[in-house]
Design a protein that fits this description.
126 residues; Arc Repressor Mutant, subunit A; mainly alpha
Length: 126
């Protein structure tokens, strides 16, 4: 007797299953997948001052205080969902406040303090 700890499908059963699937009618041609549209193509809109999130400045202040840029930090501090926090991070990157995506690491903060942040943001308005 052999001990098995998962579902067991015997070789004859596998052969019957593959024969059944193989005997079914196929599609007349290959199914074409939609074209991939890169997420990078939408970042130019994120730098438009008029289309920034209402919490943009507050998010920038949170990022500068913590000196690390991540969507999860914004989620916790501003009580946001992941999608909105992600959009804020993209807008902060487009504005030059945080660096680019680096995998699982937090983004580098490019602005050292609140005075530099105010100069950057006030310069955009004028």
């Amino acid at each position: 007797m052999i001990r098995i700890q998962c579902a067991f499908v015997d070789t004859p059963e596998v052969e019957k299953l593959t024969d059944f699937i193989g005997s079914q009618k196929a599609y007349p041609s290959a199914y074409l997948l939609p074209e991939y549209i890169s997420e990078d193509s939408g970042t130019s809109l994120d730098n438009n001052i008029n289309e920034r999130d209402q919490l943009f400045r507050e998010a920038a202040e949170v990022i500068i205080t913590a000196q690390q840029g991540s969507a999860s930090l914004l989620q916790r501090k501003l009580k946001l969902g992941y999608n909105r926090a992600g959009r804020l991070i993209d807008q902060l990157e487009a504005a030059g406040i945080v660096g680019p995506f680096e995998g699982s690491k937090a983004r580098q903060v490019l602005i050292p303090d609140f005075m530099a942040l105010n100069q950057l943001l006030d310069g955009e308005i004028n």
